[in-house]
Amino acid sequence: MCDQTSIYIHIPFCVKKCVYCDFYSKTDLSLIPGYINALQKEIEKRSGLKDAIDTIYFGGGTPSLLSAKEVETLLQTIGDCFSVASDVEVTFEVNPGTVDLNYFRELKNVGINRLSIGVQSFDDDKLKFLNRIHTAGQARNAIDYAGKAGFDNISMDLIYGIPFETKTAWLKDLKTAVTLMPPHLSCYMLTIESGTPLHEQLKKGVIRPLGTSDMTVLFKQTSQFLGEAGYDHYEISNFSKGRQNRSKHNSKYWDMIPYYGFGAAAHSYDKKTRSWNYRSIDAYIKDICSGRLPVEDRETLTSRQTMIEMIMLRLRTLEGLDLKKFTTLFCVSFETRFKDILDHILESSFGSVKDGRFALTLEGRAHLDSIVEAFAEKIL
Ligand SMILES: C[S@@+](CC[C@H](N)C(=O)[O-])C[C@H]1O[C@@H](n2cnc3c(N)ncnc32)[C@H](O)[C@@H]1O
Ligand SMILES: C[S@@+](CC[C@H](N)C(=O)[O-])C[C@H]1O[C@@H](n2cnc3c(N)ncnc32)[C@H](O)[C@@H]1O
Ligand code: SF4
Q1: Is Iron one of the keywords UniProt gives this record (predicted)?
Q2: Does residue 125 lie within any of the structural domains?
Q3: Which residue in 50, 179, 278, 341 has its CB near the most CB atoms, within 10 A?
Q4: Do 177 and 108 share a structural domain?
Q5: Ligand 2 pocket, 91 CB below 6 A?
Q6: Among the three residues 188, 221, 254, which one is the final residue of a domain in this structure?
Q7: Ligand 2 in contact with 11 (CB < 6 A)?
Q8: Would the CB of 159 count as within 6 Å of ligand 1?
Q9: Residue-wise pLDDT tens digits, 47-92
Q10: 99, 201: one domain
Q11: Separation CA 9–CA 266 (nearest Å)
Q12: Alpha helices for the chain (secondary structure H)
């Protein structure tokens, strides 16, 4: 029998960098054809016909900078090198400043069946502050085109908690989002990553980030508002209309199911080992063209690392951690191993144990980082 697995393809190109983003991408678009060629070679080199691929994800960077022909070429190579399921979910990330109706029709024709649209906000001032290449009008058009081209599996990315953002302003963004009725929404709390222009602004005192308690208010407001609008808060940043509209691909990350990562800066996981490719387009292409795999490094997870990772990932989700599965994997019951922390969490209503699963409440998820840290300290 085939093993179910996934493919992630990294497209490290952007028209310009957004002030908050530290995902790997470059603005030299002339490198795209050579990169596609190298990607094909990497896929061929790592081919695995015994693996049944049921999700494929084009992420970035900006996948929507590729021509539909280039996307088709990559999907054909995957089809030649892997056993792709007939009902495979194929997600494609889109920047609203790079698309039109015809492009979406072409994407549909070459086999893309889920779009993740990087809207970020419907407020032009907020978009300008973030250094996005598009306006709110273009974001609305992108959603409209996606529907007209026949996509029904659409997700929207939004960012909240930028400096000076108020509860009212964020609520306005959420209200606009739900009127467009996407079946899936990702709402990300702004993180100020070191090395980004936003971090520079912070160091110079040009911006003052929102405090933790203001962020917590926005996080809870998001969950409450989207809950009332019919969305399940199924992962800390993700919301869907029913189970059928969850991201199958990302759900696999939270379930620790193996995946292939192709391209510069892409990560792969095979149940025991994590590996990652060079975070440089030049180094990636050079290795591939010399017949080597472009792996920068790999680490085999110890049982302790797997335990931390499983707790960290599962506590992000609505369903939480399967206690029986934990005992089978680690030969110790979760309740015994973490009695003190668990008692504290249950007493303070930050979590609950139901039907053999330990999950955080909304209040608990608002304190996810410190809760995960408490578990990690106990494991190390
Ligand atoms: C890596 S981007 C790729 C999507 C596409 N390039 C775009 O921006 O339209 C995926 C998503 O991550 C989120 N993101 C990236 N950096 C972030 C940060 N520092 N804080 C919060 N969200 C972030 C954004 O919502 C973005 O749409
Ligand atoms: C921030 S999430 C956005 C998910 C989107 N909201 C959705 O529901 O489909 C996706 C980003 O994570 C990063 N990413 C995901 N899987 C990856 C992998 N295997 N290797 C490297 N980066 C990855 C990419 O930058 C990608 O743009
Ligand atoms: S958020 Fe998207 S468009 Fe902006 S720099 Fe990051 S990957 Fe590129």
Answers
A1: yes
A2: yes
A3: 278
A4: yes
A5: yes
A6: 254
A7: no
A8: yes
A9: 987 889 999 999 999 999 999 999 999 999 999 999 999 999 999 9
A10: yes
A11: 7
A12: 32-45, 68-81, 101-110, 124-129, 136-148, 167-179, 197-203, 212-228, 248-254, 281-289, 303-314, 323-330, 334-337, 339-347, 362-365, 368-379
State the number of CA atoms in the 13 A half-sphere of 65 facing the CB.
23
Atom of ligand 2 nearest to the CA of 93: 27
Residue 93 CB less than 6 A away from ligand 2 = yes
96 and 206 part of one domain? yes
As for how many domains the chain has, the answer is: 2
Can you give the residue range of the structural domain that contains 368? 303-379
Pair (202, 351) in one structural domain: no
Of residues 157, 161, 126, the one with CA closest to residue 142:
157
Q: Are residues 196 and 345 in the same domain?
A: no
**If you ran DSSP here, which 8-state letter would residue 272 be given?**
S
- Give residue-wise pLDDT tens across range 156-184: 999 999 998 999 999 999 999 999 999 99
DSSP for 297-356, written as a single string: EEEEPPHHHHHHHHHHHHTTBSS-EEHHHHHHHHSS-HHHHTHHHHHHHHHTTSEEEETT
Residues 248 and 318 both lie in one domain:
no
Q: How confident is the model at residue 3 (pLDDT cuts 50, 70, 90)?
A: low
Dist. CA 104–CA 197, nearest whole Å: 32
The answer, yes or no, to whether ipTM is higher than 0.85 is: yes
pTM for the predicted model, two decimal places: 0.97
pLDDT at 4: 78
